[in-house]
Write a structure and sequence with these properties.
- Strands 1-2 form a two-stranded parallel sheet.
- With about 110 residues, the protein is mainly alpha-helical.
- The chain has helices at about 1-10, 15-40, 55-70, 85-100; strands at about 45, 75.
- The model has no long low-confidence stretch (mean pLDDT about 90).
- The protein has four helices and two strands; from the N terminus they run ααβαβα.
- Helix 1 crosses helix 2 and helix 2 crosses helix 3 (about 55-70).
């Protein structure tokens, strides 16, 4: 994962990696703030590349959000990790199949 590599380089003292990480955290926090402002969720589950966030990165995003949103939702990392997209696709297919094979009127 690119994020894991940036975190590792930053922890090894690379100021360039640290700067890039800060940009990533700022961008993600901005997108999350927009989502929170429009939808007002109680909880956000982060997935995709975000599942590679370490605790420091997650805390940095939370710090940024505290300045940008009136109510902070609970933020968690997806527990399905990289399998989330695949399992979601399988669920959609199974749901569509069960709907298509359901008797009329049910």
């Amino acid at each position: 994962s690119i994020l894991r590599q940036l975190i590792q380089l930053s922890e090894e003292g690379s100021s360039q990696a640290e700067g890039l990480l800060n940009d990533v955290y700022h961008g993600w926090a901005s997108g999350i703030a927009n989502t929170v402002s429009v939808l007002d969720p109680e909880m956000l589950v982060l997935s995709g590349e975000m599942i590679h966030l370490n605790e420091a990165g997650l805390n940095r995003i939370r710090e940024l959000l505290l300045d940008w949103v009136p109510v902070m939702p609970e933020i968690r990392l997806a527990t399905l990790r990289e399998r989330a997209g695949l399992l979601g696709a399988v669920h959609s297919v199974l749901e569509a199949h069960s709907f298509a094979s359901a008797p009329a009127g049910s």
